[in-house]
Design goal:
This protein has helices spanning about 15-30, 45-55, 80-85, 95-100, 105-120, 130-135, 140-155, 180-195, 200, 215-220, 240-245; strands at about 5-10, 35-40, 60-65, 90-95, 120-125, 165, 205-210, 230. It is α/β, with parallel strands linked by helices. An eight-stranded parallel β-barrel has the order 1-2-3-4-5-6-7-8, surrounded by five helices. The structure holds phosphoenolpyruvate.
Length: about 250
């Protein structure tokens, strides 16, 4: 069976000292994680440090955001070529905090997705509904709509080299987690939606669950048929909890 992915989104939390401490503990503990590819997503200033510390290990590096343009007058932005120089292999696109706080729309998300693949890096496309949308019975249509926006822009074959992360907005950083059955229902719908347009890519598509994942909740979430790992925020800042989530991948 293919390895799961357990990805740690550090968000805007780090210091040089904290990065050294966390990565050295992760390096030591990574041997205990046999069925998951661990990926860390540090803030940009710590990429060089992460690359140096993780060189020769099995832990991969990702970035939390990227600019779709390749270079030029984009003050404050970071390009894919720059990220790639620091050993980055994964790029989060469309995280709900980017959508909500920085007004990233489906078109911008799709442009970042396309640019990431064009640089031979793997986008992790984040999708998910708000609490209001769930209460209105719109969960599946919102999530498949976010997937379809990328298919429309990037084409049916675009999920060949891509990962999806289903992250209900109401579960991110709130301590609330979708139940395994709730998560599985949405993951299954995502896979079925991709299968409609590109059956050959749907079976192997990795769909991660995110939203207050802990080692305890990961145990059952990861047994669900269409859950292929986790995107972890808060619990990725401590080596022991992140490694325990990695160990929950069976
Ligand atoms: C996230 O940032 O993608 C996330 C899921 O955060 P948390 O695990 O803290 O809810």
């Amino acid at each position: 069976m293919a390895k799961m992915i357990v990805a740690g989104n550090w968000k805007m939390n780090a210091s040089k000292e904290a990065v050294t401490a966390l990565l050295s503990e992760l390096k030591q503990g990574a041997v205990s994680v046999t069925n998951a590819q661990l990926v860390v997503f540090p803030p940009f200033p710590y990429l060089a440090q992460a690359q140096a510390e993780l060189s020769g290990t099995s832990i991969a590096i990702g970035v939390q955001n990227i600019c779709a343009a390749s270079k030029g007058a984009y003050t404050g932005e970071v390009s894919l070529a720059m990220a790639k120089e620091f050993g980055v292999s994964y790029v989060l696109v469309g995280h709900s905090e980017r959508r909500a706080l920085y007004a990233e729309d489906d078109a911008q998300v799709a442009a970042k997705f396309i640019a990431t693949q064009a640089m031979q890096l793997t986008p992790i496309l984040c999708v998910g509904e708000t609490l209001k949308q769930r209460e209105q019975g719109l969960t599946i249509s919102v999530v498949t709509g976010q997937i379809q926006a990328v298919i429309d822009a990037a084409g049916a074959n675009s999920f060949d080299n891509a990962v999806v992360a289903y992250e209900p907005v109401w579960a991110i950083g709130t301590g609330l987690t979708a139940s395994p059955a709730q998560a599985q229902e949405v993951h299954q719908a995502i896979r079925a939606h991709v299968a409609d347009v590109a059956p050959e890519h749907a079976v192997g598509l990795k769909i991660l669950y995110g939203g207050s994942v802990t080692a305890t909740s990961a145990e059952e979430l990861f047994t669900q048929a269409d859950i292929d790992g986790g995107l972890v925020g808060g619990a990725s800042l401590q080596a022991d909890s992140f490694l325990a989530i990695g160990q929950a991948a069976k």
